[in-house]
Structure formats: structure tokens, C-alpha cells
Write a structure and sequence with these properties.
0% of the residues lie in helices and 34% in strands. By secondary structure, it is mainly beta.
């Protein structure tokens, strides 16, 4: 097991992911969240909302969940990806995203249709994977969390180090 890393100091206007709780917390946000397709995928907007919520968990950048009403759900297809289960949120339902260019981004979105107690606020909301889509918060493009399993959104207002990369599994 890797030793717990030393948290980076948060400057004014920043949050340290090491101050986030475990179990995670759900935090509503009024920030504008936009998810778009890259130019290679045909461009255009998939989602645009000021009604998102963040799930905040120790050592992870926030994962953003968007109201389904603010997502172009006509571009979503049930995914054949294997289901996963979170000890806190429950069983995830994965969605493939069809781009304007006709590409299929497999399991680029997910939801919790029947989340566990404490996470009812994200019921049916959609989370989308930065790096596969262009995800932005108040105009800042989010950088994807390292590794292939987690899908946090790294913006300049959060500091790590972040779980996900090699050697961080035991954090």
C-alpha cells in the first residue's frame, strides 16, 4: 500500500481534495457546466447546465453530475460496458455517446438510476468523462483524472495530488 501523499497547499479560491470527505458528499453547484464534442467528433454541445452537482471524495477531483433535462439524450445509447458498483453510490449504468461525426464513444457517460441512501440527489443525473468529451466549468476546460477508472474533472480551483495514477491505488 502506498503511503498517503502530502497534500498540496490550497490558495485562496481553491479546494484541496484532501479536505473532501469519505464517504463522499454531494454538493450542488450553480457554476455553468458545458460538455461539448471535439472538432474531430463534429463539434457542438452535448450538455449545458447551471444545475449540476459535484460528488466530492477524499483524494479525487470532483465528479460532476448533470440533470438529464440539460443533456442531449438523443445522443446516448445503453452501453454494453460491464457494470460497476460503488460502495457509496451503488450500481452504475453506462451510456455510449454518439458524436455528430458518427463516432461512438463507448461508456463515455454513466448514471446511477437507483443510488444508495445519501446519494438520491444524483438519481438519473449523467456524468461525462473529460478527455473523451470537452468538459468545462465556468469556461475552463477540465483535465481528466489520471488512470482509466476514475473520471474526476481537474480544474484550477482544486489541488491534489489526485488518486488515479500509477502507485495511488492504496490511497
Amino acid at each position: 500500500m502506498s503511503p498517503r501523499p502530502v497534500p498540496l497547499p490550497a490558495r485562496p479560491g481553491q479546494e484541496s481534495v484532501w479536505d473532501y470527505p469519505r464517504p463522499p458528499a454531494v454538493s450542488p453547484s450553480a457554476k455553468r457546466v458545458v460538455v461539448a464534442f471535439s472538432a474531430d467528433d463534429g463539434g457542438g454541445v452535448l450538455a449545458d447546465t447551471t444545475g449540476a452537482v459535484r460528488v466530492l471524495e477524499t483524494s479525487h477531483p470532483p465528479t460532476w453530475y448533470l440533470p438529464r433535462a440539460d443533456v442531449d439524450v438523443a445522443r446516448l445509447r445503453p452501453s454494453a460496458a460491464a457494470q460497476t458498483s460503488c460502495e457509496f453510490k451503488g450500481r452504475a449504468t453506462y451510456w455510449d455517446v454518439l458524436t455528430p461525426a458518427g463516432h461512438l464513444l463507448e461508456a463515455a457517460a454513466w448514471s446511477y438510476e437507483e443510488p444508495l441512501r445519501g446519494f438520491e440527489a444524483i438519481t438519473g443525473m449523467l456524468s461525462l468523462r473529460p478527455g473523451r468529451l470537452v468538459c468545462s466549468v465556468d469556461g475552463e476546460v477540465a483535465r481528466p483524472q489520471e488512470g482509466g477508472f476514475y473520471a474526476g474533472w481537474i480544474t484550477d480551483d482544486v489541488v491534489g495530488p489526485f488518486k488515479g495514477g500509477p502507485g495511488t491505488w492504496g490511497w
